[in-house]
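Appendix B, example 12.
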Amino acid sequence: MFAQEADRLFKITAHGSTLRREVTAGIVTFISIAYIIIVNPSILEAAGIPFEACMIATILTAAFGCVIMGAYANRPFAVATYMGENAFVAYTVVGILHFPWQTALGAVFVSGILLSLLTLSGWRSVMSSAIPTSLKYSFAAGIGLFLAFIGFIEAGIVVTGSGSVPVEIGQLDNPAVRLAIVGFILTGALLVRRVKAAILLGILGTAGIAFLLGLSPLPTSIVSLPPDLSPTLLQLDIAGVFTVGMFPVILSLFTMAFLDTMGSLIGISARAGFLDNDGNLPQVERPFLADALATTVGALLGTTTNGVFVESAAGIEQGGRTGLVAVVAGGLFLLALFFSPLFAAIPSLATGPVLILVGMMMLEPVTRLDFSDYAEIIPAFSVIAMMSFTYNIGVGMCAGFVLWPLFAVVRGKIRGIPAACWALFVLCLSFFLLYPY
């Protein structure tokens, strides 16, 4: 009975999937992004936001975003608090510019409202459809390298450089790093053998070995009551946002949220085969609205910008194709309110290797780029490189939107540039000029 109702609601059979595959993909997706439960409040604590309340806000917002994404948009994309935007708020808006965290959350709320209005007006979809095909493929490849880079760092295989180099190889004699490498090989072997649930088995197997060897502590408890949310609930300062000094902050938050979700949606969809013959995602306004609403709700609860997580690719690679994946992930986030010690116990040495492999899988669209057309390949390469080397998806996308029309003009095809591309050009150029470095 449940299987029939789920198939009716999410059109599982029509998407060539099964109930078991969708649920498994939802579990994989959740495990891949569960680190946000601890990492996000740890970062925002530097801004003065209470850790425990922010953790609950992070969980509730992710659950809300995932359920809206799954039930309304019927897409297997998980929504949670973005990495990058949270650091921007903690270390730039509050740490350098000295705005109170309440005002920073007010700016996040305003950016969420602007994104919602832009989506409902239809302009967000228009701008998404106007993106050149070469840039869409570069988003997927860039996000793939970005994910792989995160995975290498989480696994300890790559670390911050100790001398004049920015990064270097980690301590390979460290047992935790060695186990991460074993986890990479183990998961890779399962993929080679076409084992179903290979990614989930790789994560759980590596984590299990880490617990047995004492390389990662077992959870001190399994069940716990949720902490108090009141220190952050409705504590945002909206009135303080409307000052001259906050304009660059709002522009930066809006641009990063707008482009991060666009890049994640298109990049993951390109890999999953969701794009139509014109390279567009059908009914893209629905997932757009889901992330905009999650950002707005998140600011009210006590966390920063939310959107589609690139780690959703892990569940898609597991075979997930419908919104049930996101709903399952959202349900697990709600469970995390009571089982957060258990979920938080999964070590990064278990999830890092999976992110490396998922990043590898997302590189496939780069083969569709025409490397003989420099007017196309230079902006595309800039997207891929800047996403990885600046550790920021939005910055990479901005580089592409600035460079693509410029090189189209150089090639003599100014009349073929859509008006929406020029709008993105102005928006992204303003981002680089006004970004509070």
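The radius of gyration is 21 Å. Residues 260 and 394 are 5 Å apart (CA to CA).
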